[in-house]
């Protein structure tokens, strides 16, 4: 029994595991019971993730992000799915130790791997456990949207297909709107960019969402580019292990009078509201928004999760760490709020 009673920060909550579902020999889903007082805090969008605090004898704890495989429109409770990785401390701990009734510390849902509208036609790619945010989008689009959905799902073999029964049932329920293409390495080998390009050519008007190992996503990116899909229609989810502690409360950074006098000015649009605030050049956008009491989306503050991604509409910023963003994303104006510093005296940003 894993029992945690006191959160390590004001943003997180202690949730009870209501069920553990064995999905495949090396993956399981963890369903959380969200009490009434946290329902608003843990409302989520299709494709978002939860950050779990996992005990560690060496470091006290580690933080790991796991995508929500549930849909806010079709599932009664949030569910994350965890697949073992060979040397993955977090995934193995969760697969070995967690049972119904255990309690875990969890940060509210986060992430920008989510459609702006569910009425698009969607071209979805998942490989292995990369299916988790993808199936959330898939179920949401089928029940709330009006378009068609094509899923290309790659796995080692038939036994490793997570959600096989659920996908089969959905294909039967939505025969004219859902197409599922399984790609098994044991039968077809690893998918190449050329093979995928042939497969996706009829769907270049769709919105593409992908999640999976790096080589798979590289192949999908090349395939979509070769097929002529505009980069603005392509969305990728990337996870890295978090080294810091996103559960700790944010500590405001002291600003000298000299730095305050030289601060830039930023106009930030978030959730339909516009905020105009001074932006000292040594501080990040997330720093200054939190200091002003603005509920900015963020998780790791390391530039590793993409939760704080936003778009520069006017002005220029520089980033400490931007490896999670593709060059095309940066060219399109995407920045990470937790890594961004102002270059110009005025900046306009939208989340």
UniProtKB/TrEMBL annotation:
Superkingdom, taxonomy of origin: Bacteria
EC class name: oxidoreductase
Organism in which the protein naturally occurs: Rhodococcus aetherivorans
Catalysed reaction, written as an equation: androsta-1,4-diene-3,17-dione + 2 reduced [2Fe-2S]-[ferredoxin] + O2 + 2 H(+) = 9alpha-hydroxyandrosta-1,4-diene-3,17-dione + 2 oxidized [2Fe-2S]-[ferredoxin] + H2O
Organism ancestry: Bacteria, Bacillati, Actinomycetota, Actinomycetes, Mycobacteriales
Residue span(s) of domain FAD-binding FR-type: 10-116
Protein name (database record): 3-ketosteroid-9-alpha-monooxygenase, ferredoxin reductase component
CDD domains: fer2, PA_degradation_oxidoreductase_like
One Gene Ontology term from the biological process aspect of the record: lipid catabolic process
2Fe-2S ferredoxin-type domain mapped to chain residues: 264-351
Pfam family name, one: Fer2
Listed GO MF terms: 2 iron, 2 sulfur cluster binding; 3-ketosteroid 9-alpha-monooxygenase activity; FAD binding; metal ion binding
PANTHER family cross-referenced by the UniProt entry: 1,2-PHENYLACETYL-COA EPOXIDASE, SUBUNIT E, NADH OXIDOREDUCTASE HCR
SUPFAM superfamilies, sorted: 2Fe-2S ferredoxin-like, Ferredoxin reductase-like, C-terminal NADP-linked domain, Riboflavin synthase domain-like
Signal sequence extent: none
Swiss-Prot/TrEMBL cofactor(s): FAD
EC number(s) stated in the UniProt entry for this protein: 1.14.15.30
Key word Metal-binding present: yes
Transmembrane region(s): none
InterPro entries: 2Fe-2S_ferredoxin-like_sf (IPR036010), 2Fe-2S_ferredoxin-type (IPR001041), 2Fe2S_fd_BS (IPR006058), Beta-grasp_dom_sf (IPR012675), Cbr1-like_FAD-bd_dom (IPR008333), FAD-bd_FR_type (IPR017927), Flavoprot_Pyr_Nucl_cyt_Rdtase (IPR001709), FNR_nucleotide-bd (IPR039261)
Keyword line: 2Fe-2S, Cholesterol metabolism, FAD, Flavoprotein, Iron, Iron-sulfur, Lipid degradation, Lipid metabolism, Metal-binding, Oxidoreductase, Steroid metabolism, Sterol metabolism
